[in-house]
Amino acid sequence: MKTVTEFPRKVVEFPDMGIVMPDGCRLSARVWMPQDAGDDPVPAILEHLPYRKRDGTIFRDQLTHPYFAGHGYASIRVDMRGNGDSEGLMDDEYSEQELQDACDVIAWAASQPWCNGNVGMMGISWGGFNCLQVAAKQPPALKAVISLCSTVDRYADDIHYKGGCLLIENFGWASTMLSYSSRPPDPLLAGDNRWRDLWLTRLENQPFLAPRWLSHQHRDAYWKRGSICEDYSAIQAAVLSIGGWHDGYRNTILHLVTNIQSPVKGIVGPWIHKYPHYAAPKPAIGFLQEALRWWDRWLKGIDTGVEADPAYRAYVMDSVRPARWHPERPGRWVAEQEWPSSTVKTQSIDLIPDGSKPSIVASPQSCGLAGGEYFPFTFGPELPGDQRPDDALSVCFDQPELGEAIDIVGAPEVEVRLSSDRPQANIAIRLCDVHPDGASELISYGVLNLTHRNSHEFPEALVPGETVSARVVLDQCAYRVPAGHHLRIAVSNAYWPMIWPSPESVHLALSAATLALPLRPPATGNEVTFAEPEGATPWATETIRAAKSERHIDRDEKTGIVTLSITDDFGEVRDLAHGLANGSIARETWTIHPDDPLSASGKTHWTQTLSRNGWSVRTETLAEMRSDAQNFIVSARIEAYEGETLVFERNFEERVPRALL
């Protein structure tokens, strides 16, 4: 990445600008703007997050926000209430309070003498979600949005549920937020006599969100609120949507491009869950330059040509050897002026010949361990590995060897007819690229709780032995399968630990299956190009403990229990400007017996540390999830230390009845 140190306008930073909400709650904002903005007002750009601007997102903030300010914007990074250096309490993700606070910050920014009255909002993940939801509320000053790694459907395409199946991230992310939000504000900003009271109040009111999310197992009003797919027409701001093929939120881009009536463009690269100017696998792109084109057009009225850009720009990844991490993915950029595209044709492939005996799908509960993380994050061993271990536990339909390369661009689908011997069953379908030597690379996958085959809102139990039809939509992809390789469609009824298992072992009798494959004529080279990545001066730190990631799969040969152990040590660093040191370690274990779905268990343990000049605090958060045939059982614990003294402890435990899950 090229570091830019000289900008068209000189930048001034305000590290703790207080923004007082109508109810009196003070939100802490870090603001960068041109030094002369008071004389020459500029548009504002808001990023509104719970992830701590002081020590959480500071790495990416340093690259991004001063860059925008140097090009004529007031760039505002706000800690949401109840998080970081802001006052107040947080009770849930995307709450009405959170969204209203963002609207109030937008109105505040637009009214400032240094702002020209036009505001944009951007963010990745949580910030990508809430900027779309805020846009749907139509605050008058909000003219444009850049949303990365986000969703249009909080139920069907987030970390909670997928295809009506319970994602283990529902528990995992609740554990993460318990840890993230239990940290105190920085005493240098909150005050030596105040930070501790704010911290203890925060701890006493900290929610453990897993039981709440588990209590809404179907697509009810809880999930509909904030899901912009309920009314795409509510979005009137111009939207640039960006995602990555190695991220869990890869489907949103085409949903937005297809459905929003306001100006909208989409870009998908080969990246994990990161901003694309420093993301991997490479190639990264000049995201900040691309963002400036968007902001300049919709916030300053400058003709930058963005309206003539293709509706959809996607990176078609070449086939590579399966690996848990790829520093880069070879491939090429393709462009579609409109979507749906007339150049993408659907090829229909019958997987089971007429008259064949049904294929019996009865996977061990440990099938799925090669699937990787839902949204890889650490630049570490989190990608899907060689699929052969999972293929061996699935029913596989191998296609003929390809005589010439094909480009798959879009969402593959599989129509199935099957019967189940139990009233609730899951199905997982993977599309794989099989190399000549047998190595199997995951292209895309989809899962479906078969009781949701007709509706996520009104599930229907299966009648054992009765044949039903269902459609499994796989994730969007852009992938070239070369000549000499062949496609494999692998079907299982377990996908651990991506989804929680059914309460009983299941046999599915698969009598028909048809693959709908979206094919685009193979591109011969890049159809669009992007500038090389740029960024402002990186965050200046001293490394105290280096980061590292580990991932182990162990099988107890005596008991048969399979355990996936993950340790992500994010290291510890000291900020060279304000002296705050912060460290973080996450540990997860996921265990299951291949023959017993009720043996499934997940445990997490997070450690967070903050210190400066003899002052130190630490939080330890532990959580566990298991289930019986009737209930999910979740528990958690917070321990907070000042120095080595335990100053707070709290336990959570709840049972949530299963409802066709």
Automatic annotation (TrEMBL):
Endpoints of the signal sequence: none
Keywords: Hydrolase
All residue ranges annotated as the Xaa-Pro dipeptidyl-peptidase C-terminal domain in the record: 292-539
SUPFAM superfamilies reported for this sequence: alpha/beta-Hydrolases, Galactose-binding domain-like
UniProt-listed InterPro entries: AB_hydrolase_fold, CocE/Ser_esterase, Galactose-bd-like_sf, Xaa-Pro-like_dom, Xaa-Pro_dipept_C, Xaa-Pro_dipeptidyl-ppase/CocE
Alphabetized Pfam families for the sequence: Peptidase_S15, PepX_C
Protein name: Peptidase S15
Native source organism of the sequence: Mesorhizobium kowhaii
